[in-house]
Design a protein that fits this description.
seven-stranded mixed β-sheet; four-stranded antiparallel β-sheet; alpha+beta; 407 residues
Length: 407
């Protein structure tokens, strides 16, 4: 290898490590912990008021409503009840400051019919529940739409916006059954509203986009994929690894999103970080043990199961186990908590298809380039994959420590 090429590779390696280090410091300890999900269930027969049952993260609602309404007493009472983990006290704090809470919610969640605003009124009292391991407040509102009750309703959500500075990227997951129309929708800052009469293609596109965006903005899942790509010797291995990861996270994603499995995020998030470090460090260990022979295509146990040697099969099992945990992370981003329905199931599947599409795109873009580099310049290939693995390992370990500390 020429001196010029070696210097270029060293410069590239330093740049990649610097980038990984900057991302590790810039990213929050929990990749999913600084966003929030609002759940809304909308019902109506088309001949009367529209009813919305809202579930909002309790401590976030208290802080946001107190800040917006300049209600310091709400903040003190709500925070004390939250710290004490007292459900009755939490509901009482919201009830004592109903006006501040309802004004905050109805100022950022609206319903219109026939182009005119519907008038909200609180129905019943506050209560609390648990979602994704944290307390949620439940608020029911009826919306009177005058003479437009039978018209198409448009729901717009802008709760807990980025501008408030408490969370980033709030999603509102809506399930609805109104006047013969039923379905689900995913709202965020980019698409803050939906029509009850929207087509099924529009509904499913929203969930596909949500899944794709979640993987693209989830740096931890992308780094896990890069670790898989760097440690794969040939197309068969990356295909099997990606398939194993997909099957595993699809199973737990659906089970968790449908409420059949519930693991707290304080457990899931550190394990995801650890999985990133372990899979990347696996490749570093093989580089240390085998050196330039790490990409030898003459697999000793070529006739073994899946055409992999013992190390390849063990790696596949590890990837599958970690994929189960990543599925819980994906579900935490969506977190639908609603009764079973085929409409909901298809929405979840479309969300997962969005994740898989981006995942396959990353594999298709990166793996062939690394294979070409390894074949034409073997030592450069070792430098490239080693640098990727080292950066991903360091970042995973930093996140693991951070998430344990903040869990």
């Amino acid at each position: 290898m020429s001196h010029r090429v070696r210097r270029l590779l060293l410069a590239c390696a330093a740049a990649v490590l610097t980038l990984f280090g900057g991302l590790a410091l810039a990213q929050p300890a929990a990749a999913h912990g600084f966003s929030s999900t609002v759940y809304a269930h909308v019902t109506g027969d088309g001949n009367g008021p529209l009813r919305t049952q809202l579930k909002l993260e309790y401590d976030l609602l208290v802080v946001s409503a107190a800040d917006a309404g300049h209600d310091d007493a709400l903040f003190r009472a709500g925070t004390a009840a939250f710290d004490a983990q007292d459900d009755a006290a939490q509901a009482a704090a919201l009830t004592a400051h109903t006006r501040s809470v309802v004004d905050y919610v109805t100022g950022r969640l609206t319903v219109t019919a026939g182009g005119e605003a519907c008038v909200p009124s609180r129905r019943g009292g506050f209560r609390t529940t648990t979602a994704d391991g944290v307390p949620y407040a439940v608020l029911t509102l009826d919306w009177a739409c005058g003479g437009h009750d039978g018209d198409d309703h448009v729901v717009r959500a802008g709760l807990f916006p980025d501008s408030e500075g408490y969370v980033k990227g709030t999603k509102t997951i809506v399930t609805y059954a109104v006047g013969g129309h039923d379905g689900s929708a995913a709202l965020d800052a980019a698409r803050p509203s939906f029509s009850v009469g929207q087509s099924w293609t529009t509904r499913f596109w929203e969930f596909f986009r949500l899944g794709a965006e979640h993987l693209l903005t989830g740096i931890d899942h992308i780094l896990f994929l890069l670790a898989l790509i760097a440690g794969s010797r040939r197309p068969r291995e990356i295909v099997l690894a990606a398939t194993s990861f997909t099957l595993a996270h699809s199973v737990t994603f659906l089970l968790a999103a449908l409420g059949l499995v519930d693991v707290p995020s304080r457990v899931v998030e550190p394990v995801i970080a650890l999985s990133i470090a372990v899979v990347a460090a696996w490749h570093l260990w093989r580089l240390r043990e085998l050196g330039t022979r790490v990409y030898d295509l003459q697999v000793p146990d070529e006739d073994g199961r899946f055409g992999l040697d013992r190390a390849g099969r063990l790696r596949l099992a590890v990837v599958f186990c970690f994929g189960l945990v990543h599925g819980l992370g994906f579900a935490g981003a969506l977190g639908i908590d609603a009764a079973w329905s085929w409409t909901l199931l298809w929405s979840l599947l479309v969300f997962n298809v969005g994740i898989e599409t981006v995942q396959l795109g990353i594999v298709a873009a990166v793996f062939p380039l690394l294979m070409l580099l390894r074949r034409r310049h073997p030592r450069a290939g070792l430098w490239a994959t080693g640098t990727i693995a080292a950066g991903v390992t360091a970042m995973g370990l930093v996140w693991f420590v951070q998430r344990l500390a903040t869990g």
